[in-house]
Design a protein that fits this description.
Radius of gyration: 17 Å
Number of domains: 1
CATH topology: Nitrilase/N-carbamoyl-D-aminoacid amidohydrolase
CATH architecture: 4-Layer Sandwich
CATH class: Alpha Beta
Order of helices and strands: EHEHHEEEEEHEEHEEEEEE
Number of strands: 15
Strand order of the largest sheet: 5-4-3-2-1-15
């Protein structure tokens, strides 16, 4: 059986990210952490590359180390101050390499899980290096796994399924979901593909999956002019979508939901 788990309140911070504006984005993320804690959340999930914006041209210049870079340290301090688990997507420098990374920080301010995106889109290969890790961590709330955005679309759901095999009760996925300027959400409501991909693994492994996207215009990079549009969501172990945030480049919000990890047998 998995490690002990218990129900908890999860917040998805669907925040605006401004490309390259690292100081503004960090201050905004810290405020989102504060508001999530004030709303009773024990875990807050923030977007992918929240510091610089996904594929922003400044990424190779301004990426910072994990766990001791200034922005990661600030997020760790906020987790400690507000006594909350924080999952955040950050642009990471490791020597000459730059990764699209995510961390899970404990309420004591420790980085307890560190992921580097594995299934990066081809258009981002000039910005980020290939990820090299995947893992889970047991906490008093349950066992968490991390993936990032398109990791959820990896062939055969290999990333999410591996996290399930490793014992994850909950998979957290910082994301940056974007559409071109002429996208019509009436003709094609956004988000169903993500929910269906999450649901496949959620049902198979009896786990929860949560994806949180930022909102706002992408300024620079291969998708310059596209809009990140939110639609952050949570899928339960029945494969049912239990929470969805609104669509739109201005649809900033904090979405709260109750997560109830369930005991389940090993997958082998």
């Amino acid at each position: 059986m998995n490690a002990p788990s218990r129900p908890f309140r999860l917040a998805l911070a669907q925040m605006t990210v401004v490309g390259g504006d690292r100081d503004r984005n960090l201050a905004h993320a810290l405020r989102q952490i504060e508001l999530a804690a004030q709303g009773g959340a024990e875990v807050v999930l923030l977007p992918e590359a929240l510091d610089l914006g996904w594929t922003h041209p400044s990424s190779r210049q301004w990426a910072e180390p994990i766990p001791d870079g200034q922005r990661c340290q600030a997020i760790r301090a906020a987790a400690r101050l507000h006594r909350i688990h924080v999952c955040a997507g950050l642009t990471e420098r490791a020597g000459e390499r730059v990764y699209n990374a995510a961390v899970l920080v404990s309420p004591t301010g420790e980085v307890i899980l560190h992921h580097r995106k594995l299934n990066e889109l081809a258009i981002a290969h000039d910005v980020y290096d290939q990820g090299d890790r995947l893992g889970v961590v047991a906490t008093p709330l349950g066992t968490f796994g991390l993936m990032i955005c398109a990791d959820g679309f990896a062939r055969g759901h290999v990333v999410a399924r591996t996290l399930g095999l490793m014992g994850a009760d909950v998979i957290l996925s910082p994301s940056a979901w974007a559409v071109p300027p002429d996208y019509d959400p009436v003709k094609r409501p956004y988000g169903l593909d993500w929910q269906e991909n999450y649901a496949t693994v959620a049902r198979e492994f009896r786990l929860w999956v949560a994806g949180c996207s930022n909102v706002g215009r992408i300024d620079g990079g291969p998708w310059h002019g596209h809009d990140c549009i939110g639609c952050s969501c949570v899928v339960n172990p029945d494969g049912r979508t239990v929470a969805v945030a609104p669509y739109g480049a201005a649809a900033e919000t904090i979405l709260f939901t109750e997560v109830k990890p369930e005991p389940r047998p090993r997958a082998w």
